[in-house]
Hints:
This protein is of the alpha+beta class. It has helices spanning 16-19, 29-38, 96-110, 125-133, and strands spanning 3-6, 43-47, 53-62, 79-87, 115-121, 137-142, 154-160, 178-179. 20% of the residues lie in helices and 27% in strands. The chain has an eight-stranded mixed beta sheet with strand order 1-2-3-4-5-7-6-8, sandwiched between helices.
Amino acid sequence: xxxxxxxxxxxxxxxxxxxxxxxxxxxxxxxxxxxxxxxxxxxxxxxxxxxxxxxxxxxxxxxxxxxxxxxxxxxxxxxxxxxxxxxxxxxxxxxxxxxxxxxxxxxxxxxxxxxxxxxxxxxxxxxxxxxxxxxxxxxxxxxxxxxxxxxxxxxxxxxxxxxxxxxxxxxxxxxxxxxxxxxxxxxx
Length: 188
């Protein structure tokens, strides 16, 4: 039996089962604590019977500054973003990713976000297929989203939330629409 619940500060030191996976981005402890402090309803964990954290999702809500509106359809209004979603290898195929993202979707709905987005590496076909099954659409293509020149290309996958009744922020055939790193505003 696995329990889905909000993350607590004590959980940050128990993320190893998830973070040892090579596909999982690892961050400094301060990063995790900052997320927990800023977006406590959007940092959710799955805990097993032994009280081990076996999966987690970290998200946030954000929008581009007003001056970015000149970017036209590249401007991002108030939306939710999945920063990290990971499940320990031995706990995969149990529906935990789906449960965690559903909880995050609800939190973003409460924040009146237009849509949810996330970046997923183009080589991570398993994740891309999973997100498609959960209603995410390959909305845009992003070349090296970190802008560092060392990372892999990624898709920006999106799911409209109830505020976006006309799916204004979802693009058909978006994988053919290129977004460059300089087109993305990085929130500090």
